[in-house]
Design brief:
Layout (H helix, E strand, L loop, with lengths): L5 H13 L2 H8 L3 H15 L4 E3 L4 E3 L1 H23 L9 E7 L1 H18 L3 E7 L13 E4 L8 E5 L3 E2 L1 E5 L1 H7 L12 E5 L9 E5 L2 E5 L2 E6 L2 H9 L5 E4 H10 L3 E3 L7 E2 L2 E5 L6 H10 L4
Length: 296
């Protein structure tokens, strides 16, 4: 029997990371049947079963777990060697995969994309916006962009120098009906638009002024997991929302929303870019970091 080929092993790695033949086929730009055939061929050549498959799930067998543990660092090294060839090119190339929260994408990635692609026509950007916590190594990303508290400890962190701020907002009609909000505690009797993290935890509204910090667990019948949904709910008059200043800026400027407690909303450090310590930085990622820092 012929030995396994590198394409078979790369296909195995994609399926093992994603635990999905369909997702692997999308990532590899292959049909699902081609991915299934590659895995079947690999299993036949190795003489072992690598996956337990049902109609609803895909899981690694013990042999598959062992192969993944040995194979992943080797293929990462191969990818690093291939990327080193960019040092001999006139300009960087390759695919750059970045995982980011939706707000970080809005704040960092969107302003850069067109300029970055124009400056580096041989680089392909693959941006995945996901508010959940993602293992960027296991999921095959080159880097992530999130707030520092969501970054694992074993990562290289690159502060991007963009401060953020929250804004407490509601419609003029809501204030007419419910009265002014002059102190954070004035919000406690009212139903607000709450933000829910992907873990299910409800975000406590964080205020600070003159050294005094107040964290409010506001009540409300509406909880959302997206800043734009919170903005829409506030504009619809459901109640006050506590959202990023940049997200609310246009609605405030147009008069759809009124901002309160601005002096209780200090600035704080914005998203950071991060990548694994043990992985060599590709030329594509280096050029992206330089541009994000204003050096490119």
């Amino acid at each position: 029997m012929a030995p396994p080929t590198l394409p078979h092993l790369m296909t195995f790695l994609a399926v093992a990371r994603l635990l999905s033949f369909q997702k692997a086929s999308s990532e590899l730009n292959l049909s699902t049947s081609a991915v299934s055939h590659a895995i079947r061929t690999l299993e036949e050549r190795l003489g072992v079963s690598l996956f337990n498959r049902t109609t609803r799930s895909v899981a690694l067998t013990e042999a598959g777990e062992h192969l993944l543990g040995r194979l992943e660092p080797l293929l990462n090294d191969v990818g690093g060697v291939v990327d080193e060839m960019n040092l001999f090119r006139d300009r960087p190339s390759g695919r750059l995969r970045i995982n980011t929260s939706r707000y970080a994408a809005h704040l960092v990635v969107v302003p850069l994309m067109a300029r970055f692609l124009a400056a580096f026509p041989d680089i392909t950007l693959d941006i995945v916006d996901d508010n959940g916590i993602v293992d960027i190594v296991g999921a095959g990303f080159d880097a992530g962009i999130r707030f520092l508290e969501s970054v694992p400890e074993d990562m290289v962190v690159v502060p991007l120098g963009r401060d953020c701020r929250f804004a407490a907002v509601a419609t003029p009609a809501w204030f007419d009906a419910n009265g002014p909000v002059l102190h954070p505690n004035d919000l406690l009797p009212h139903e607000c638009v709450r933000y829910r993290f992907p873990s299910g935890r409800i975000f406590r509204w964080e205020f600070e002024k003159d050294g005094q910090r107040i964290d409010l667990d506001v009540k409300g019948r509406v909880s959302v997991g997206d800043q734009d949904l919170a903005l829409a709910a506030a504009i619809d008059g459901i109640g006050p929302a506590f959202i990023f200043e940049d997200v609310a800026r246009d609605a405030i400027a147009s008069g759809q929303l009124v901002r309160v407690l601005e002096d209780w909303c200090p600035r704080f450090a914005g998203p950071v870019l991060y990548y694994p310590q043990q992985r060599r930085v590709s030329s594509a990622l280096r050029t992206f970091i330089d541009m994000a820092l204003g050096e490119g």
